[in-house]
Specification:
Helix content is 26%, strand content 19%. By secondary structure, the protein is an alpha+beta fold. Its cofactor is Zn(2+).
Length: 126
């Protein structure tokens, strides 16, 4: 995992909650492959620009969108469920773009975005 990848893509600021970092490192250890961070911290203007939710956990340094190359998305999802901070927090399964949103919100929350060719289902929210 490349910590610099956690910085806001727009301004380079970095805010990361230690508990998120620890949970990501634990997940990385579990899958045995380096995690790739697609989106980590987002400053509020950047979050707004990309259409993120107003109170997104990304703006608190408490969320990351990740992949682990070589690890199937469902295997990554199962591994995340074994990490207490994620099991008890937010997990969004993006089957359309094959990544996982993980956050350490204080209550369990799950959502799934179906593959592109599936029938429309739910919205995404993070
Ligand atoms: Zn920014």
């Amino acid at each position: 995992m490349e910590p610099s990848r956690f910085a806001c893509r727009h301004c380079g600021d970095v805010v990361i909650d230690r508990r998120l970092l620890d949970a990501l490192l634990a997940l990385q250890g579990k899958v045995g492959r380096p995690l790739v961070i697609l989106s980590g911290y987002r400053c509020p203007p950047h979050n707004r620009d990309i259409g993120g939710e107003l109170r997104s956990y990304h703006t608190k340094g408490q969320a990351a969108d990740i992949r682990a190359p070589g690890v199937p998305i469902m295997a990554l999802f199962q591994a995340a469920l074994e990490i207490p901070a994620f099991r008890g927090g937010g997990i969004g399964l993006y089957l359309n773009r094959k990544f996982l949103h993980l956050d350490i919100r204080p209550q369990r929350f799950r959502w799934i975005v179906p593959p592109r060719n599936a029938l429309p289902n739910k919205t995404h929210s993070h």
